[in-house]
């Protein structure tokens, strides 16, 4: 009798093993690689997976997570789904939070069958703090339904129970999944539920949510992590080298300051010798807000004239304002009115040493005005339309990521706008100007090697995290004028030279001379005008129809993202990138051609030639890939498929969090590396 049961038992065991191996779920296939849609993932969280942890696991915001009922047995996660390598997938990252075991087991346990597990993950060992790029199962509807939701079949689930649970027909589920026998479904497989509305209810926020644990800091792995770093000899070599480099930087900065002080005082003494009677109209004074190695190149001593203080009062009179400008532009608030003499004195008579650069409609000067550093835009009186447009918008709109208008001045033939001063210059000068790197031209010729060395040390290379933060700041500024003002505006001239950086390298959008109020149309909000702006940043539909919408700004912002990645200009040469013969092409077309050979973050080697060399390979590949894919979405030829700026802000926020998490794992000491790259 026993001889009969033993073969039967072995056969049953082999059958179960075969079924477990062969039942790995497969993604939904697709053919249109440009397809992008909103999808949902049904996820059954464990008790310790709080809202904060769910956000981190799926790279989403709280409003993207809904619950099936009050018990929160199931949550529904909204994700953008795309057709990648002929399969519908969505990306996320998973952080290993404990040593021991395999990455495969941790991913399967965490995501419950929603993750596509690659061979690389299956064979990998878990190391605390490691960030793993994952793809999750998702799907796009063919048009019969609004959404598809990925659902892992559980024991006891049937097609009939799912149809009743989600309020749809059994035929719909069978049609989407190609099911011929509704009784033949497999637990653990992913099935797609067609939906016409957003599933679930808002995640309840009435209880405190503990923060997600920080990788590498839990009591279970601190000791192991410390022992790992102690045994790593290269870590100490790196740390020792950094100490030496930082010491040399400190010595160079001290030498730089001493040389600048001595030259400044020598010039002051020379001026007093040349003008013993004190008849000169200029004198030297020390500005309270001037930094030692500021991008303006003025360091401590700056030359300016005398003026009569007016204590910054706001005037109801508008002196010298041309009659063609309607004073009704100040119906919200009135800016400070400066006299032409104040402007001329503050800019040292519009000297070349104070010239910061040339904008679309005028020159911009540095000025010391009423004991405050400012930027002054100088325009001819014929530019009243641009002057009025910028005054109208900036008198009504105030945001931390929009440059602040302080006041204005006017003469018979010139107009002046006074803004807050951006100490670090424009983003363009840091990315593409090999000489200045953010510093305006200096009038003196530096022949001393020490001074040249000082300028090199004062220059700050933009690290990866700084670039993402700058992109996020600029996106927030654009989102504000697109969606959160009483009247919605489009900028129409978004580019790296119109993104300014303050002393902390936080970005502010500037130059609203082309900004336009948008009105309601059948297709949304739009403004039809003549085509203005900068080539390389102009959306195809704007060039074709002159129709300016918020999606036109999104296209230009996508080009800015490509510039942040590559360090190249919007119209650039193709040397050594994708073309054998050098020619000038748009950066967007070049990057899109390269991205065709980069299906995921594991193929980043195909994109290496397009990544800014100044990053020195210090960047997380998955985050660079995410920014590149976001830029790709932004420059889509079809404006409907482009994300709005709110979606861009959400994506960049998640990328910034992932980048900071990556930096925390860099050689075990984020502060050392971040401080070196950012020039702290």
TrEMBL record:
<dbReference type="GO" id="GO:0005524">
    <property type="term" value="F:ATP binding"/>
</dbReference>
<keyword id="KW-1015">Disulfide bond</keyword>
<dbReference type="Pfam" id="PF07714">
    <property type="entry name" value="PK_Tyr_Ser-Thr"/>
</dbReference>
<keyword id="KW-0472">Membrane</keyword>
<keyword id="KW-1003">Cell membrane</keyword>
<dbReference type="InterPro" id="IPR011009">
    <property type="entry name" value="Kinase-like_dom_sf"/>
</dbReference>
<dbReference type="Pfam" id="PF01476">
    <property type="entry name" value="LysM"/>
</dbReference>
<dbReference type="GO" id="GO:0019199">
    <property type="term" value="F:transmembrane receptor protein kinase activity"/>
</dbReference>
<keyword id="KW-0812">Transmembrane</keyword>
<keyword id="KW-1133">Transmembrane helix</keyword>
<dbReference type="InterPro" id="IPR008271">
    <property type="entry name" value="Ser/Thr_kinase_AS"/>
</dbReference>
<dbReference type="GO" id="GO:0005886">
    <property type="term" value="C:plasma membrane"/>
</dbReference>
<dbReference type="InterPro" id="IPR044812">
    <property type="entry name" value="CERK1/LYK3-like"/>
</dbReference>
<dbReference type="InterPro" id="IPR000719">
    <property type="entry name" value="Prot_kinase_dom"/>
</dbReference>
<keyword id="KW-0732">Signal</keyword>
<dbReference type="InterPro" id="IPR018392">
    <property type="entry name" value="LysM"/>
</dbReference>
<dbReference type="InterPro" id="IPR036779">
    <property type="entry name" value="LysM_dom_sf"/>
</dbReference>
<keyword id="KW-0547">Nucleotide-binding</keyword>
<feature type="domain" description="LysM">
    <location>
        <begin position="149"/>
        <end position="193"/>
    </location>
</feature>
<dbReference type="GO" id="GO:0045087">
    <property type="term" value="P:innate immune response"/>
</dbReference>
<dbReference type="InterPro" id="IPR001245">
    <property type="entry name" value="Ser-Thr/Tyr_kinase_cat_dom"/>
</dbReference>
<feature type="transmembrane region" description="Helical">
    <location>
        <begin position="235"/>
        <end position="259"/>
    </location>
</feature>
<keyword id="KW-0067">ATP-binding</keyword>
<protein>
    <submittedName>
        <fullName>LysM domain</fullName>
    </submittedName>
</protein>
<feature type="signal peptide">
    <location>
        <begin position="1"/>
        <end position="23"/>
    </location>
</feature>
<feature type="domain" description="Protein kinase">
    <location>
        <begin position="350"/>
        <end position="657"/>
    </location>
</feature>
């Amino acid at each position: 009798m026993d001889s009969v049961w033993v073969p039967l038992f072995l056969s049953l065991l082999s059958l179960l093993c075969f079924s477990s191996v062969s039942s790995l779920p497969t993604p939904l296939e697709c053919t249109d690689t440009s397809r992008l849609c909103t999808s949902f993932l049904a996820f059954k969280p464990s008790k310790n997976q709080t809202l904060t942890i769910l956000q981190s696991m799926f790279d989403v915001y709280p409003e993207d997570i809904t619950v099936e009922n009050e018990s929160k047995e199931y949550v529904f996660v909204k994700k953008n789904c795309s057709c990648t390598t002929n399969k519908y997938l969505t990306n996320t990252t998973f952080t290993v939070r404990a040593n021991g075991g395999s990455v495969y087991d941790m991913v399967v346990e965490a995501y419950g069958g929603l993750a596509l597990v690659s061979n690389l993950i299956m064979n990998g060992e878990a190391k605390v703090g490691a960030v793993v790029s994952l793809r999750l199962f998702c799907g796009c509807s063919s048009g019969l339904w609004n959404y598809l939701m990925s659902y892992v079949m559980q024991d006891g689930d049937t097609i009939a129970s799912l149809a009743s649970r989600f309020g749809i027909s059994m035929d719909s589920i069978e049609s989407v999944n190609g099911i011929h026998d509704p009784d033949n479904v497999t637990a653990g497989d992913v099935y797609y539920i067609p939906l016409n509305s957003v599933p679930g209810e808002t995640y309840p926020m009435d209880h405190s949510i503990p923060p997600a644990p920080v990788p590498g800091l839990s009591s279970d792995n601190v000791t192991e992590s410390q022992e790992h770093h102690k045994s790593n000899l290269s870590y100490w070599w790196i740390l020792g080298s950094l100490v030496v480099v930082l010491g040399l930087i400190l010595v160079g900065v001290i030498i730089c300051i001493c040389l600048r002080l001595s030259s400044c005082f020598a010039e002051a003494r020379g001026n007093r010798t040349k003008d013993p009677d004190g008849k000169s109209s200029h004198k030297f004074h020390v500005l309270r807000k001037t930094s030692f190695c500021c991008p303006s190149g003025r360091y401590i001593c700056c030359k300016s004239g005398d003026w009569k203080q007016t204590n910054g009062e706001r005037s109801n009179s508008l002196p010298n304002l041309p009659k063609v400008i309607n004073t009704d532009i100040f119906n919200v608030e009135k800016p400070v009115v400066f006299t032409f003499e104040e402007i001329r004195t503050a800019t040292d008579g519009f000297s070349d040493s104070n010239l910061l650069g040339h904008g679309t409609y005028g020159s911009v000067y540095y000025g010391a005005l009423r004991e405050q550093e400012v930027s002054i835009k100088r325009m001819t009186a014929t530019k009243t339309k641009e002057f009025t447009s910028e005054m109208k918008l900036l008198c009504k709109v105030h945001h931390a990521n929009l440059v602040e208008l302080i006041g204005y001045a006017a003469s018979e033939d010139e107009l002046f706008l006074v803004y807050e001063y951006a100490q670090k210059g424009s983003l363009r000068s840091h990315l593409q100007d090999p000489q200045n790197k953010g510093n305006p031209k200096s009038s003196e010729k530096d022949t001393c090697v020490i001074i040249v060395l000082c300028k090199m040390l004062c220059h700050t290379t933009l690290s990866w995290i700084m670039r993402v933060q700058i992109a996020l700041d600029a996106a927030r500024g654009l989102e504000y004028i697109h969606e959160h003002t009483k009247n919605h505006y489009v900028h129409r001239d978004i580019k790296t030279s119109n993104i300014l950086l303050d002393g902390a390298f936080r970005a502010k959008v500037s130059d609203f001379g082309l900004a336009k109020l948008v009105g309601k149309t059948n297709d949304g909000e739009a403004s039809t005008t003549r085509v203005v702006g900068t080539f390389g940043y102009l959306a195809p539909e704007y060039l074709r129809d002159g129709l300016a919408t918020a999606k036109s700004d999104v296209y230009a912002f996508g080009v800015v993202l490509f510039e942040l990645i590559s360090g190249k200009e919007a119209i650039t040469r193709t040397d050594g990138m994708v073309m054998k013969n050098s020619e000038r092409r748009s950066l967007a077309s070049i990057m899109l051609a390269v991205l065709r050979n980069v299906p995921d973050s594991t193929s980043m080697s195909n994109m290496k030639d397009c990544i800014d060399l100044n990053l020195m390979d210090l960047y997380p590949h998955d985050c660079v890939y995410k920014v590149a894919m976001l830029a790709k979405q932004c420059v889509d030829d079809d404006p409907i498929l482009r994300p709005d700026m709110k979606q861009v802000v959400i994506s960049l926020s998640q990328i910034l969090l992932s980048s900071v998490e990556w930096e925390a794992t860099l050689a075990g000491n984020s502060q050392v590396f971040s401080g070196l790259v950012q020039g702290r």
